[in-house]
Amino acid sequence: MRYKLLGRTGLRVSELFLGAMTYADASPEVRRIFGMYADAGGNVVDTASMYGESESVVGEVLQGQRDRFVLATKYTGSRDRSDLNAAGNHRKNLVLSLEQSLRRLRTDYIDLYWVHVWDRHTPIEETMRALDDAVRAGKVLHVGISDAPAWVVSRANTLAEWRGWTAFAGLQVPYSLLRRDVERELLPMARAFGMSVAAWGVLAHGVLSGRYNASGAAASRLSPESLTGRDRAAAEATLEVAAELGVTASQVAIAWAMRRGVHPILGTSNAEQLKDNLGAAGLALPGEAVRRLESAVTFEAGFPSDFIDEVDRSPGIYGDDVHLLDGR
């Protein structure tokens, strides 16, 4: 396992994150998963306040070794569905959600506190100032945001820069060979702000593992009959590349995402799945294999990205000597 710095901070995070969303109890299997992940060098565990018993499970499993992990959790989701103020990104819910998460996780600080989803009803200024207060109080070390438009994140980090508040160091998005729309605005924005990107859904609900392409495949998170031609084409290309490289399709799909500079979040239900997924850490995909994977399912960045790329070297816009310019 290799490591990167979280955003523009000095925090070292492993290239693969462990997603704890589905863990309902600290079973022997869950403990094996955590042990295997740690033995492989993984150090980031990602959960959320609205993932059922997950925070409590993580807190129990990490007893005695909490400080060796980068503990990440999220807030936004409702703590009490009968109370409107028990949800959202406003200060009241942030304060109460954070205290609840600290109790469940059996810790006095969160390494990475995510805003779970953009709340249209709360000014981003309120959210950023409240997050900064949590950082200044020592209850949170770094902050990130999940599932939000690029313009919201850009405004938030610009406000933080101008006002001396803590900026978002991380961005969490859905990303896979089958779902590349974040390449239009969100990934370029993250690069511009120096943010780390965590990606969920890198196996596209198991489609890219190839499990549904097999004859007589059983339904799991999806029904085989629900797969589109595009889904099957992506899975088939992934399976073909995997066979040629002597690895699994899941490893190919995860390695593809890593090649794009993101941290895949591994949400596995058993240790055997995790062992397979961890194999992606040392997998270098040949350029030709990447081209085959990406050509199997078409993706267009669309306007303005395609248009800007088209005119980037246009003498009519930038002058006759534009070809002599070494850009960023």
Summarize the structure.
The chain is α/β, with parallel strands linked by helices and 328 residues long. It contains 12 helices and 10 strands.
Q: Which helices and strands appear, and what pairs or packs with what?
A:
Layout: E1 3-5, E2 12-14, E3 17-19, H1 28-39, E4 44-46, H2 54-61, E5 70-75, H3 91-105, E6 110-115, H4 124-136, E7 140-146, H5 150-163, E8 168-174, H6 186-193, E9 196-200, H7 229-245, H8 249-259, E10 263-266, H9 271-278, H10 287-296, H11 305-311, H12 315-318
Parallel strand pairs: 3-4, 3-10, 4-5, 5-6, 6-7, 7-8, 8-9, 9-10
Antiparallel strand pairs: 1-2
Helix pairs in contact: 1-9, 2-3, 4-5, 5-6, 7-8, 7-10
Approximately how much beta-strand content do the residues carry? Answer: 5-15%
Give the CA-CA distance, first to last residue. Answer: 30 Å
* Bulk shape: globular
Write the CATH architecture name of the largest domain.
Alpha-Beta Barrel
Count of the domains: 2
Element pattern in H and E: EEEHEHEHEHEHEHEHHEHHHH
Helix segment count? 12
